[in-house]
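Hi R.,

As promised on Friday, here is the backbone we talked about, encoded as structure tokens. Could you run it through your design pipeline when you get a chance and send me back a sequence?
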């Protein structure tokens, strides 16, 4: 970069200098996502994310009592094709059981290896199954398992300095449940995320026609999925990053482990202590020019980097 004309440089809170971020996650990874749900994502250019029960890949779901029991789960080849178009994947435990001290290591730690072997790809995010009752043990075992984030069922906007081991999610569901019943709001959390410069991670399982739904508190109608994406774009415009959840996680970690320093010679980008598991290693650097204009550039980073700019 031409340092003579630069008055300031910084790493932007979000990729591409965007103001806020929107992601959406589908727990269980139902094969039926490949129909109209996927088409809706393609239409709006929003990447999705599936969180898989490690023992269920490519098999009918085996969680008796679940609204989605016996439904087919995505296979490795199907997940490969989703990932090829920008989707991501995370772990959702070994069997979706209630965690106890007795099963926590299998459900949280050993399941990561099982899922990585089943998919042939790195798994760095853990999405708590069932309810937040499973959260304390998820957090306790996260470091041993090697997760970079633990994603919960707390409905909140994640700020740039959020605790990635307690990432919040917003329900993208047709009907809220006990004890405060509610109906779908396409704007849920979006204006707050824009104002705070935060990250919304939607939670759902699948989008289907209203009449085909098995459980309105766990899924969204196709009509409302499209409406949600329309409102994300209406509220966000050019300011929203439509980010796949693990890419956002990776960006946050790259940003936290990188810093800019200025000297007589100019600006230098340093990267130290980047966790090994981070897959997408990029930061966006914003240069402010003498005339006040901004120039953005995505830069690849690695641990130990010392890059004069
Ligand atoms: Zn689940």
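Update: got your reply. Pasting your designed sequence below so it's all in one thread:
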């Amino acid at each position: 970069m031409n340092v003579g004309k630069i008055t300031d440089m910084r790493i932007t809170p979000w990729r591409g200098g965007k103001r806020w971020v929107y992601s959406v996650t589908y727990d269980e990874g139902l094969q039926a996502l490949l129909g109209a749900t996927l088409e809706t994502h393609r239409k709006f250019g929003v990447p999705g994310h599936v969180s898989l029960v490690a023992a269920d890949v490519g098999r009918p779901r085996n969680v008796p009592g679940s609204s989605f029991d016996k439904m087919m789960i995505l296979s490795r080849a199907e997940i490969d094709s989703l990932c090829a178009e920008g989707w991501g994947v995370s772990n959702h435990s070994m069997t979706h059981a209630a965690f106890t001290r007795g099963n926590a290591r299998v459900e949280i730690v050993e399941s990561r290896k099982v899922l990585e072997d089943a998919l042939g790809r790195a798994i760095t995010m853990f999405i708590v199954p069932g309810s937040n009752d499973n959260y304390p043990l998820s957090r306790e075992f996260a470091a041993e398992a090697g997760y970079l984030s633990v994603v919960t069922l707390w409905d909140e906007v994640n700020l740039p300095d959020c605790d990635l081991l307690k990432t919040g999610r917003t329900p993208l569901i047709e009907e809220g449940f006990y004890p405060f019943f509610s109906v779908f709001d396409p704007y849920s959390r979006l204006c707050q995320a824009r104002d705070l410069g935060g990250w919304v991670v939607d939670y759902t399982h699948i989008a289907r026609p209203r009449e085909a739904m098995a459980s309105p508190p766990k899924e969204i109608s196709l009509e409302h999925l499209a409406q949600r994406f329309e409102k994300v774009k209406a509220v966000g415009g050019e300011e929203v990053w439509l980010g796949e959840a693990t890419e956002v996680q990776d960006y946050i970690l790259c940003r936290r482990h990188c810093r800019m320093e200025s000297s007589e010679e100019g600006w230098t980008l340093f990267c130290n202590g980047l966790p090994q598991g981070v897959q997408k290693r990029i930061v966006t650097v914003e240069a402010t020019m003498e005339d006040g204009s901004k120039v953005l550039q995505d830069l690849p980073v690695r641990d130990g980097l010392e890059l004069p700019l």
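One thing I noticed while checking it: Residues 149 and 165 are 5 Å apart (CA to CA).

Thanks again,
M.
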